[in-house]
Amino acid sequence: xxxxxxxxxxxxxxxxxxxxxxxxxxxxxxxxxxxxxxxxxxxxxxxxxxxxxxxxxxxxxxxxxxxxxxxxxxxxxxxxxxxxxxxxxxxxxxxxxxxxxxxxxxxxxxxx
Length: 112
Fold this sequence. Notes:
Mean pLDDT: 91
Number of domains: 1
Oligomer: single chain
CATH superfamily: Ribokinase
């Protein structure tokens, strides 16, 4: 009964993933300028769910990667108003941002 996983998005403080007795804490990426945080949570959710849908893997390890992917995409969202920044980024930009998150979280996200 109940969910197997729980993701708690903490805004500028990152995200937490809970499963059984395991916890994964993903930090927020320190940015020099946050222009507008509107939509960052939705962008996180889209990146998280999109990654899981693409991989079809609901293991804890893959969920951790999905948290990093969602966080990386959300970090782009806050850099400009609305979806403007998201329309400018490339797959390579996303991969580089995921690498930065991986370093912060001491996590190996070898996915892209």
